[in-house]
Amino acid sequence: SIISGETSQEINSRVAALGWRADGQVAVLLGTRLESPDPDLIRKIARKLDGDVLIGVQGRRQVVVIGLLTHAENPNKKILEIALSLKDLFGAGDLMLGPTVAAVSDSARSAKAALAALSVAASREGLTRPTLADDLLPERMLAGDQLAKQTLINSYYLPLVSGSQDLLTTLRAYLEHGGSLEATAKSLFVHANTVRYRLRRIQELIGEDVTDARVAFVVQTAIVVGLISDTESGVRR
Predict the structure, then answer these.
(1) What is the pLDDT of residues 25-46, one digit of tens each?
(2) What's the predicted TM-score (pTM) here?
(3) Are residues 51 and 161 in the same domain?
(4) Among residues 147, 83, 88, which one has the least CA distance to residue 115?
(5) Which of 4, 114, 163, 205 could be a cystine partner for 30, CB 3.0 to 4.6 Å?
(6) Sign of the CA dihedral 153, 137, 108, 72?
(7) Which domain holds residue 23?
(8) What interhelical angle do 165-176 and 213-233 show, nearest 10?
């Protein structure tokens, strides 16, 4: 029901009937099932780590909804800890952890992200088990995932356009010049140290280091998607 995207009310009714005890944040872990799945061991491990789980099998796919018994200050860290403890109870292949959501009633969003990430996993090499679904935002967006598109806009583009125009202009120039400080500075008629300072400001703004090649790709994708979205909706910034 979570994968199929039932309403929040329907999900709440179903999980209550299954004895769901978690009252905290939730994320969905998605991968291949073992030949002989062990749901009891999955539950036992999760409960030792102050979590609860719902387990479903669809063909070769195993879906585990991870919930924290109580709300945590750092739910991403706690849910990842549980997911790491469960990884060997999945079969070989890619294992995706959807984004953390506030409650089980919102778990369809986490499941959809994990499913979308699983569908594009072949585009990346050396993925960890589990991989965070939001670590594949550009790939998901290119495959037509609207949730990934909106996440890119909300997480990167909107914070950038809400800041100083100089920061966005500098970042676009930096990305267009392949990460060259000198070429960026020359194109903007500023000193290279000014570019360095602005890049540090950008890192503070989005929480990511754009001098990292992967981050640069993600952010450049977000800017392109954001600009197109603004044009389509008639927004001028």
Answers:
(1) 999 999 999 999 899 999 999 9
(2) 0.90
(3) no
(4) 147
(5) 114
(6) negative
(7) 8-131
(8) 120
